[in-house]
Amino acid sequence: MAQKLTVYGVVQAVGFRPFVLRCALENGIRGTVCNCGDHVEIVAHGTPDALGRFRDMLESEKPQRAHISRIVVSETDGKEPESFSISGSRDAGSGEPSIIPPDIAACDDCVRELFTPGGRRFMYPFINCTSCGPRFTIIGDLPYDRSRTSMDSFRMCGSCASEYSSPEDRRCHAETVCCGSCGPSYVLHDGKRICGGIKEAAEKLDEGCIIAIKGTGGFHFACRADSDGAVGRLRELLGRSEQPFAVMARDISAVRRFARTSSGDEDALCSYARPIVVLDRKARGLSELVSPGLHNVGVMLPYLPVHHLLFHHSGCEALVMTSGNMPGEPMVLSAAEAFAKLYFADFFLVHDLDIVSRCDDSVVRDGKFIRRSRGFVPLGIPVQHNLKVLAVGAGMNNTFAISKDGMAFMSQHIGNTSNYDVMEYHKRALDHMMRLLRLNSGELDLIVSDMHPGYSVTGLAERISAQQNVPLRRVQHHAAHASSLAAESSGDVICIVADGAGYGSDGMIWGGEVMHGGERLGHLEYQKMPGGDLATEYPVRMLAAILSKTCGEDELLNYMHGYLSHFKYGERELEVMARQLVNRCIETSSCGRVLDAASALLGICFRRTYEGEGAMKLESFALGGHDLGMRMEIAGNVVITSGFFREMFDRLGEDKGMRSRRDLAMTLHTALAKAFCDIVLEYRDLKIPAGFSGGCAYNAIMSRVMKRELGRGGIEFLEHRKVPCGDGGVSFGQVSCV
C-alpha cells in the first residue's frame, strides 16, 4: 500500500525531514520525504497498520519546534523503493501559508557540547543543530536548504557532512551545520586591525570598554551593567540620556539577584525565544544609569553561543546589551557599516556570516508584548478570514502584517518610518516576507493602511494599490488597536484604547478612547497642544494647556514662571505659548499627553527624550503612593481631565511634600482607569468582555484597576497576549478588521 502525505505548517528548519526518516525506519516504511517550498511531501509504502502507526507518530512525536497545521493523505502508486530516504528539495509551492520558524536560542545540548573539552565544537561560537540556531535571519528563500541561506558561503567539511547525512545524528539535515574548520568565525577588531577574539572581548568588557557585537539579527552595544562609568559613557556617546537599556544576565540566578521574578517571567526568560522581559528592580547589582527614574529593567538571558562564551570568559554578572544603532535608525548589519556608523565603540566583535534579515530582540512585560520580533517572527497568528491582505501598520514602532488562508504573518519590529532608512528597511522586509509566503502584490485582495495622511507607510499603501489595482482601505488608528484585541480573543470586545496619538475620524488627535466595532463610545476631554509636536516633547506645555481651562490668564502665567527654566527661550517663549492657548491650535484626547502633563505638574519629567518617558516615570513614581479617592467627572461620554488637574493643582499648593506627590500620582492613575471603566459599564447590557489596548496598556497600575473595577461590574477583562499592545500591534488589527 502506498500513500502520499502532504504536511503543512512549520515543518522546515526544525529537523522535520530527519524525524520523518527515523519514524519511517522504525515502522518499516519505504519511500521518500521532500521539502517542497511551503510544505513537506512524504511518499510512504508499507502495510496499512505500519502506515497508521507512522502517521500517528508524525503528529504525536514531532520535533519540539515543529507545528503541523494539517496533513493531507491521498493514495498514490509508483515503484516501491528498497528503503526510505530524504530526497532533494524542490520548489513545488501550493500557496499554503507555511513558513520557517524564527531564530531559536542555543539548546541545552549545544550549550553542553560548547563547553565539553575535546569535542569538535568546544568553544565554537556558531554551534547549532536541528533544534536551535538562526533561521529567519539567514534565509533568503524557500525551500529551506543551505544553498538558500547565507551559510551557503561556507562549504561543509567532511566531518560536518557526515553528521548531516547520518539519520541518528541530531545534525542530520541541519542546514546550518558547521564547525571551527568550515564555518563562520569571530574576531575582535579596534576599527583598524584585528586584536583578538571572544576571550579578549570579554576581558575588555570587564575593564569597562564599550564593544559593538555582531549577532545573527544585527549589532548590539555591550558594556558592563554594574559600572556607572561604562553605562554613562555609552549614554553620552549614543545621545540617549534617559532611555532605558536592556541587560543580559549570566544566568537565571544572576537575574534573581538584581530583579524580582515570577514563575511566568522565568518561563519567558528561559524559553527558546529568549525575549527581553521587563522586571521590577532590586536595589543592588546594576548601575542606576541602566534605567534612570524607573522601577524596572529589561532583562534577557544568553541566546547565542557567543553570549555564553563571553560570560564564560568574563567576571560580569550582567552586561548592557542594547540595539546597535543610532537613535531612530535601523540596527547595523555589517562590520563595514559598524566601523563607519558606530565608530565611537572601543572595539568591535564581528563575524563573517551575512545577515539576510535584521531582527531586534523581542520585549515582554507582564506577559504582554512590547515588541514582537526575534524568537517569534515569522510565526503566524490565526485570523477570521481567508483573504490575502497586506496591512502596512502605523508610523511609529511599525510592523506590517500579511494574511493568507486564515493566518496573519507579522513582520519583525521595523521602527519609526518617518526615518528614510527605516522606511527602506520596511520595503525590503516586506519584499522578503512576500517571497517567503509565495505571494506577489498583484494577488492581494486588499491593502489596509492608517487614516493618517502623513505616514510614509500610508503613501506606500497608496502606491501599491494604484500600481496593482488592489482596493485600499483606511482604518482609524484606535479602531485598529481595538480590532487587534478582538481578533486575539476571537470575539466581540469593548476596548479601552489609550496611547500617545492617532489620527481621528474628526481630524483631531485621539488617544484616550473607548471603542466598539469601530464606533467611538467615549473619550477623554480634548486639550490644546500649544506648539503642536512641541507639546509632546515638553510636557509642561500640555500642563499649561490643561490648567488654562480652570485658571485665569494671570494665575496661569504666574504659575508657569515656576517652570521658566524648562522653556528654551524663557519669558519670550512663555508669552508665545500663552497666545497659542488663546488662538486656535490642534487638540488631542490623548491619555499619554495627560500622563505627560501630570509628570510635569509633579516635578518628574520636563522633557521627553524617548517615547513614553513621562508616563513611564510617572508610573514608577506612583508605586509608593496611595489613592486619595478623587474621581474624574464624566459629561455625557467625555471624561473631564481639566477639573481633576485643577484639584491636583490646589492640593499641591497645600502640600508639596514627596508623600503628597506620590499619592497624587497614584490617584491620577486610579481615577483615569476608573473613568474609562465607568464609560464601559454604561454598556454592560451588551454582555461582552472589555479590554485594554494602546501604549498605555503596559501600565500595570491602570491595568490592575481596570481588571478590578470591570470584574466588580461583572465584565470580563481582556489583555493582549499575542501581539503588542502598542503601535507594533496595529498591523494585526488592520489585517483583522476586513
List the domain count as a whole number: 4
Structural class: alpha/beta
- Overall 3D geometry? globular
CATH architecture of the largest domain: 2-Layer Sandwich
Radius of gyration: 27 Å
CATH class of the largest domain: Alpha Beta
Fraction of helical residues: 25-40%
Name of the CATH homologous superfamily of the largest domain: ATPase, nucleotide binding domain
* CATH level 3 topology of the largest domain: Nucleotidyltransferase, domain 5
Q: Count of DSSP helices?
A: 23
Description:
The protein is α/β, with parallel strands linked by helices and 738 residues long. It has 4 domains: 2-86, Alpha-Beta Plaits (2-Layer Sandwich); 186-351, DHBP synthase (Alpha-Beta Complex); 378-475, 2-Layer Sandwich (Nucleotidyltransferase, domain 5); 495-727, Nucleotidyltransferase, domain 5 (2-Layer Sandwich). The chain has 23 helices and 32 strands. Strands 6, 7, 8, 9, 10, 11, 12, 13, 14, 15, 16 and 17 form a 12-stranded mixed sheet that branches. A 7-stranded mixed sheet has the order 29-30-26-25-24-31-32. It has a 6-stranded mixed sheet with strand order 18-21-20-19-22-23, sandwiched between helices. A hairpin with a 2-residue loop joins strand 20 and strand 21 (407-410). Helix 19 (613-622) packs across helix 21, helix 20 (641-654) runs antiparallel to helix 21 and helix 21 (658-681) packs across helix 22 (700-712). The longest helix is centred in the C-terminal third of the chain and has 24 residues, at 658-681. The protein is globular, with a radius of gyration of 27 Å. The protein starts with a strand and ends with a helix. The mean pLDDT is 94.
